[in-house]
Amino acid sequence: MMKAQTAVEINEVLANRRSPRSLDAAAVLSKEDLLAILEAARWAPSAHNGQPWRFFVGHRGDETFSQILDSLVSFNQGWAHRASVLIVVAGVHTREDGTPNKGYLYDCGLAVAQMVVETHHRGLVAHQMTGFDATKAGENLGVDPSLTPIAVIAIGRQAPAELLQGAMLERENAPRERKALEEIVVKGLPN
Ligand SMILES: Cc1cc2nc3c(=O)[nH]c(=O)nc-3n(C[C@H](O)[C@H](O)[C@H](O)COP(=O)(O)O)c2cc1C
What we know:
Layout: H1 12-16, H2 31-42, E1 53-59, H3 63-71, H4 74-80, E2 85-92, H5 104-121, E3 125-129, H6 134-141, E4 147-156, H7 166-173, H8 181-184
Antiparallel strand pairs: 1-2, 2-4, 3-4
Helix pairs in contact: 2-5, 3-6
């Protein structure tokens, strides 16, 4: 496991998490793991407790899974077909009074972040994707027009990197990189 290089120790799940593409095509998620992952998302904070997130969960082998897989760009299809589940997160983009819900993307991102942390905490892996056709996903799944599909999350069990080839294999083994704190903390970084 290539741990994130941090100025001080951080939460282990956050330090060790990465977005692998090599997944075990035989792994099945237990009901308990899947429920926990969805609960973690449910309990995310959101503006006015609006909870604009909605999830469409495909289990490898079922129709929903195929419909989600079909909406992915071909690069993502190339590895995500081995996921145990594929989840579309869609957001309620309008408030009850008909005005735009400006913060829905932020809220949905938070819910997915919690989902990802719970997934890795359970020894599984999650890989988010925006490389998908949102219109196609909406049509395939019959998503209500009040919802905008935002991203797809592949969840599964990590497999050896060598299952991949070429550039994908290289990326799988590459160290995780981030901008320096000095670059992202515009003001107020402790010295
Ligand atoms: C919103 C979002 C969209 C992403 N879309 C894709 C994608 O379409 N395909 C892919 O292989 N990885 C995708 N990724 C994974 C990122 O490339 C990855 O998180 C980033 O390189 C950092 O690596 P790490 O998650 O292993 O730390 C996405 C990640 C996020 C958060």
